[in-house]
Design brief:
- By secondary structure, the protein is an alpha+beta fold.
- The chain contains 31 helices and 33 strands.
- The strands form 9 sheets. Strands 1, 2, 3, 6, 10 and 11 form a 6-stranded mixed sheet that branches.
- Strand 22 and strand 23 form a beta hairpin.
- Helix 18 packs antiparallel against helix 19, helix 27 packs antiparallel against helix 28 and helix 29 runs antiparallel to helix 30.
- The longest helix is centred in the first third of the chain and has 19 residues.
Amino acid sequence: MNQYLVSIDLGTTNTVLAYALPGAGQVELLAIEQLVAPGEVAGSPLLPSMRYHPAEGELAPGELQLPWLQQDPAGVDRVAVGRLARLLGAQTPGRLVASAKSWLSHAGVDRMAAILPWGAEDADVAKVSPVAASASYLAHLRAAWNARFPEALLERQQIVLTVPASFDEGARALTLEAARMAGLPELRLLEEPQAALYDWLYRHRASLARDLAGARLVLVADVGGGTTDFSLVKVELEDGGQPKLTRIGVGNHLILGGDNMDLALAHLAESRLGNPERLSASRLAQLTERCRAAKEQLLAPDAPGQVNVTLLGSGSRLVGGSRSATITREDVQRIVLDGFLPPNEAQEPAKRARTGIVEFGLPYASDPAITRHLAGFLRQHAQAAREALGLEDDGSLPVPDTLLLNGGVFRGAALAQRLAGVLAQWRGAPVNVLHSEDPDVAVARGGVAYSLARAGQAPSIESGSARNYYLLLDAQQSGDTLRAVCLLPRGAPAGEEVRLAGRSFALRLGRPVRFHLVSMTADPGGVLPRPGELFDLPAADIVRLPAISTVLRSKRSTDIPVQLATVLLEVGTLEVSCVAEDDPSQRWRLEFQLRGHDDEDTAEEASLPAELDDAIARIDRIFGNRSQQVDPREVRQLRASLEHLLGGRERWTTPLLRRLFDALLARAKGRRRSAEHERVWLNLAGYCLRPGFGHPLDEWRIEQLWAMFETGVQYHKDSQVRAEWWTLWRRVAGGLSLDAQLRLLDDFAFNLQADEAERGRRPLTLVDGSEDDMLRVGASLERIPSAYKAEIGDWLVKQIMEMPGGAKIDARAAARYGRYLWALGRVGARQSFHGAAHEVAPSASAESWLGRLLQLDWKKIEPAGFAAAHIARMTGDRSRDIGQAVRDEVLRRLSSSGAPASWSAMVREVVELDQAVETRMLGDALPPGLKLLR
């Protein structure tokens, strides 16, 4: 039996499955059987991408029964998926998992960790990871399909799974992992905007030449519930008059869509409810769902003048405690149309706010104006767009002549008309709008059309390389030309591996290596290059791509001869593999993202001081293998010596610091020569690797450093050596894994809480630590579970409240207050420096600690206000933020105690920390050029 061609659109709001038999002209939609009410099953082409975790006894036995037996990939015994989940979640949003797709691209959390529903207030609510939630929707599709087609199991069909064009490699890998968890290990990924255009092309295949007459450049604008994606497709007429389509550009990932519009209306409605307290995260989610329905009503052609949205009460006051607010048609015009699709006559790019919006834990785009993001996208791809449109470079913005709208947002005719109008105004002429028959299912249908095109049965879009890609043979070379080898020529089709058989390269194994890619739109000498061909490229014409830094693992640490094999993957990733010449089964894969180019790292590397070699020579003199007579004073003065060469260490850039660390790491054995050697090595190594992340190969550096932990220090009786040991680990804690941080936590607990008998049995490798050292290390462990932070915070508060108060606090007591309050502020901070958002201490614990801190005199004990400001810091995420009443009291006390204005600002609104506050909280200033994003 022939395989079905299957396409799955795993959407933020809905999941859809389309299919066809090869050779069949009709693309069908699967009527997905799902619960639509307790105990009631019906089929629908849309499966809401939601799951609901009912409370014990909420639903009777059998009311969650589906026509098949299925085990939840997330391991939850009782769960509703689809329409029933949406229905129940509207009433009890704290048990609803939604927008899992948006979480897949949120690098600020562990996407494999059980964190959803985000901010669930009931302890009995089962939590699942974004990956497992996505897997459960795919598993539901698989079960529904297999019940419908038991002789053609879904896992045996040709499957296409669509993803946003802007999904990075991590989000795509997690999507594939979700499919594997659902029992669908073999499938192909396709960009959603391409899929939408494939659907249009297939539906117009009989009249394509006529319908695309005059079109030169198509913009596909795909705005769904959770993401916005832009793609550019060039249209050329072939000899036979048929159009040839080539994708030439894709945009960056934006968590911006219909969900943001609904949330903006919910904030307006909340202000009109008359509630003195901010709504909880779950109550805001309930209000947002009501505003979604109101938005759709007020954007309809026959829209009423206003719609009331009602927020039900909770518990025993379900009805009596309900509140209502009115949303008018003018509100939707102002907030949705003018806020998200402003005319932007000046064609301004997106504004970069000091911080992005965070709601329900997701880092939404800081500028909600889709038309500003679009202007930036078109400017980024201006050269390719001008070539497609046949325009000269006069400095103006090249605007596509044709527009295809996709995504549920554009079901509202007013939104579709606004975007088309903006493009027409920019262009000075109308744009040709390609109408999507049904935006909700176009992507799924287009995935089938793509598979038909691959079989030669439908129009296709070429998505090969838009540029020539080269590997620099010497990254340090300079001058007017750069020697490079062609990896992939312009126009190379996706999915076909190219082996550079005529070239042999020496590859270093087991040690850090860097690979530098560059690209050019022009062909050298006007002739298309061949893979493996060597060129001297004009330095002024190349575009440098981000360097790939990695360590290639092998049992042997040596240089071996390899050949390079390259392939352009379907979703825009150039994959380069190093293949051993003597054993082709040995391959080392490197993946490059061919978008989001940033040459800052290259510029920083080029600006390394000329004195670096002399500095490394001085490190080698102190710690190198050669036996040298070095005076202890010279050892102690190494840092001053390096500063004399390189300038004050506070001005050392991150690339310089890492070069110095690498030199120290290579000579780590030399630290054991004397106590002075060990003190200096530990101090410099920690300083040069702080904060443990933020530069290529830091993960490898941390791995090498952590291997030294279990051996402890050589001179364990030297108090300064012990102090420098713990300072090193505090400085690099941001790069340590959860397991490593938990191991440090064990030593933290032992050094602070062990009794005399236990201390007598201390192993030599467990380094003793002072109270100050331990508090600073323990508070820096941001990756440990939030429950552990709650325990540590409770213990710290207990110690603080037992400290002497009185009218006058002596210097010793003040110092002890400072140590414990600094630690509490770091442990209870609402915004981590390097930990994930779901790992912060519980908000209930934070409010409890603030209640105790408010009992202190903040004028006499200044660190109490500093700690309180961080524990009460505003994030915008209601699951992390404290209640308004406690926030107001903290603000009042900060004001009356004369605290710096920046402390009150961080409590009152979402702001970035200023440098002084950041340095005080971290314990060190960050290296120049390295900026924490959270």
